[in-house]
Structures are given as C-alpha cells and as structure tokens.
Write a structure and sequence with these properties.
This protein has helices at residues 12-41, 47-73, 83-100, 109-139, 145-159, 161-165, 167-173, 182-207, 223-228, 230-241, 244-264, 266-275, 280-283, 286-313, 315-336, 349-352, 354-378, 383-412, 423-447, 455-471. With 472 residues, it is mostly helical.
Length: 472
C-alpha cells in the first residue's frame, strides 16, 4: 500500500530550475578548491595562512547559516519566504567571488593575505544568503515521499557538472599557451565563473513558484527582533537535534563526507608521486581525469541508479547499498593504482563514485521527511533551520578534513619538496586514501542501521499533517 500522495508531482521544468541553482551551489566551492592552490604555489602563502583562510571564513559561515535559516523561515512576503534571498545572495556571491580573486604578485604577502581573508567574508555571507533559503526551497517543493528523491536526484545530476568542469581549470591555469602565470589566469577566470554562475544561482528565484506569506503568523523580522531571536535560534538548533532521525542523517553525512574530503587531495599526490615517480609533466591530465570522469560517472550512472534503488528498496536501504558499493570502490583503488598503467584506476571509479554521488541525493530527500516529522511534533515548519543545521554539519566536516589532510601528510612523512618519495610515505598515503573513507563509511552505515522513518511512517505523518490543516 502506498502512503504517499500523487498530487505533489513537480514539473520537470521546476526540478531543472532547482538543479541549475545546485550547479551554482556546487560550482563556487569546487572552483575555490582549484583556485586556492595558486595562493600557496604562486603567491607564496605559508601553511598557517592556508589554515586561517580555510578555517576562519567557514566559522563565520557556520554562525550565519542558522541565523539566515531563522530569517528565511519567518519572512512575510508576497514572493514567499525564499526567492528574494536566493536572488540577492546570488548577486552578492558572484560579485564578491570576482573581487576575492583579484590578487597580484606585486602586492606584499601580508596585503594579499588580508585582502583575500576579508573579501572571503563577503563571499561566504553571499553564499549563506543564497544557499540556506535555496536548500529550504527544495525541501518544500513537494510533500510526496518519492517525488522528493526525484527532485534531489535531478538537482544532484545538474550540480555534478560542477565537478566535471572544475578539474579542467587546473589544466587551463598552468598551460602557458592559455595564461602567462596561474595568478593571471585566476583573476580572469574568476570573472567568468562569478558572472555565469551568479546567473545560474538566480534561476530558482526567478522560475520556482512560491506562495505569498504576507498573512502568515510569523515572528516580525525587525533588527531588534532578529537580535533578540538568537536565543530562539539556539533553541531551534537544540530542538532539531532532539530528532533522532535527523541526528542520524547529520552524523552519517559527517562521517562519509568528512572521510572523503580528508583524502580527496591525496589523489593528485598518489597519481604524480606513485604512478609517475614525481614527474608532474608526465602525469599530464590524469589527476584531472580522476575527478572529471568520476563526476561523469556520478552524473550518468550513480544518481539514476540511486534514485531507482530508493523507489524500489526505500531510502535507508538505498543508502546502505550505495555506501557498500563505494567501500568496494575504495578497496579496488588500492589494487588499481598501478605504476605504468594509470588507466587502470578508471575501472574503480564507477564503484568509488557511489559514496558521495548517492549521499546527498538520499540525505536531502530524507531531511525533507524529517521536517514533516518535526512539524507534526512541534507545529512549526522549519525548512530553513533544518537545512542550515544539516549543511553546517557538512561545512564543519569540510573544515576538519582540511586539518586532517595536513596532519596525515606529516604522519606518513610526505615531502613535497622532493620528487621521489620514500616507499613508506607512498604506502602510508595509499593506506589512508583507501582506509580512511572505508572507516568513515562503515561508521555511517552503523549509525543508519536503525533509521526508521520509512515510506509507511512518512505517509502516516503526511496524512496527520493534512488532517491538522483541515481542522484549522
């Protein structure tokens, strides 16, 4: 028996509009991950500066996300609660991204450091204004159990193109036929990225329908009330984490995503120093192909399969299966990184890609189900708050991953100053590359083993909410 409604089907055009926003939401972080190498390699930022510019803006981001979630949830407007913020955030994000990367060798190291740090605050503020309402917009597009997965699958399919495209910037930046130096490349490429993907970020605000909230009984959003609402924001945070299903989603995501990102940068080192004995020129585009081909596999294979599994097996079981497949992929990469045969690792990518590829398709869909449960228990509709908390966990994990990456490189004895690494360093690097994500994935699967918000339960919650509305 089906417990979900069929009246909440969302037109494909609306799903694509939401997906174009996801492309922007993923492209900016993806490109930052490529561009940021220029700060160290070409502009001379020492390790501590790298750490500060990677961590401090994300702390600021983590603070502003819940505040933006509260503001978005309580906005009274004829445009609804989300669209205006998505539009404004897109503009701020695009402009500040361009400004952030206008760095010159001629300036002092301290000047470039402070310039980048301060302008990055503006960028992350724009990202918060855009992304928190944008994610919440996706949660409220449908109340149908399976349609939610379909929406997120389409969005992740479109968004994955960011990870197909972004690795090729590395090739463009360091090709002398394109640009004299990488810092010159970054200054120009940032303009193209900022303009094009700010426009993409505006698409959901322009094309996704929303209802007026002028007559809703929301808290007044004066500056005084927003300041006084910090306690309520904290309470919302605590209340959200009282939801056991939501807590499981957050911590499972933390372990999968954190473990993946901790070792993601090791791909370049393994390919260059293990497969090609430190010869970056000989490695050519193989490091780029790892990321780009993996993203293509995710786009055309993983996401459609995971969406189908979700409908056939249920969301929790689809998560278990997809993460189990990714463990097989990590094991295969241990055996398929073969010096002299770099093409062999390509055979592991279809399995490896199920980890992150399936994660957000399912977790964002399950978060929407949890929001229904929260509304049933509290009487509050808080897509913004739950979205902000979920993505706070993602960003928190990303920040920790950056610190762990450096620590692991030190532990294994990797030395970037030499082309030929010790055998111990390469073995250690490869062990962490396969072993760390496997451990994180198994912990996440253990956390999700008794997740109990099934299709049947979600349908019962939906029926109860509909009856409550009819009474009102």
């Amino acid at each position: 028996m089906s417990y979900t409604k069929t009246s909440s089907k969302v037109p494909l055009s609306q799903k694509i509009a939401f997906g174009v926003g996801m492309l922007a939401n993923q492209m900016f972080p993806a490109v930052i991950g490529i561009f940021i190498v220029v700060l160290v390699k070409d502009l001379g930022f020492p390790g501590w500066m790298w750490g500060v510019i990677s961590l401090v803006p994300r702390i600021f981001d983590a603070i502003t996300d819940p505040i933006m979630g509260y503001i978005s949830d309580n906005t009274k407007s004829r445009w609804g609660r989300r669209r205006q913020y998505v539009f404004i955030g897109a503009i701020v994000m695009g402009i500040s991204f361009i400004i952030m990367w206008q760095l010159f060798r001629e300036n002092s190291l301290d000047y470039n450091f402070w310039y980048f740090l301060l302008t990055s605050f503006a960028f992350y503020l724009g990202l918060t204004i855009f992304s928190v309402p944008y994610v919440a917009m996706g949660y409220e597009m449908s109340d149908d159990f399976h349609e939610r997965t379909s929406i997120m699958a389409v969005a992740q399919w479109v968004g994955q193109w960011a990870w197909v495209i972004a690795p090729w910037f590395w090739v463009i930046m360091y090709d002398p036929e394109w640009y004299v130096t990488a810092d010159v490349a970054v200054r120009e490429l940032a303009v193209w990225v900022g303009v094009i993907f700010a426009i993409c970020a505006m698409v959901p605000a322009i094309f996704i329908k929303s209802k007026s909230t002028i007559n809703e009984n929301y808290a007044s959003l004066t500056l005084k009330n927003i300041g006084g609402s910090l306690k309520e924001i904290g309470n919302n945070f605590v209340e959200a984490f009282k939801s056991k299903p939501f807590k499981k989603l957050c911590f499972a995501t933390f372990f999968v995503f954190n473990a993946f990102n901790t070792v993601a940068s090791f791909t370049f080192f393994i390919i260059v120093y293990y497969l090609f004995k430190g010869d970056a020129a000989a490695a050519g585009i193989w490091p780029t192909l790892f990321g780009s081909v993996g993203a293509l596999v995710t786009t055309f294979l993983v996401i459609p399969i995971v969406a189908k599994m979700s409908k056939m097996l249920g969301k929790k079981q689809a998560f278990m299966v997809s993460q189990g497949i990714s463990v097989v992929g990590y094991i295969m990469l241990w055996f398929l990184f073969i010096p002299g045969k770099p093409y062999m690792f390509l055979f592991a990518l279809p399995f490896f890609s199920f980890g992150i590829g399936g994660l957000f398709t399912l977790m964002m869909s399950m978060t929407a189900d949890v929001i229904d449960l929260d509304e049933l228990n509290t009487g509050k509709r808080r897509e913004g708050v739950f979205g902000a908390i979920y993505w706070w966990m993602v960003k928190f994990g990303f920040g920790i991953a950056g610190g762990l990456s450096g620590a692991i490189l030190s532990v294994v004895g990797f030395d970037s100053a030499v082309n030929i690494q010790t055998e111990e360093a390469l073995i250690g690097l490869r062990l962490f590359f396969s072993g760390f994500p496997i451990a994180g994935t198994l912990i996440a699967m253990y956390i999700m083993r008794n997740y109990d918000l099934s299709e049947k339960r979600a349908g019962e919650i939906r029926i109860a909410l509909d009856k409550r509305k009819e009474v009102k």
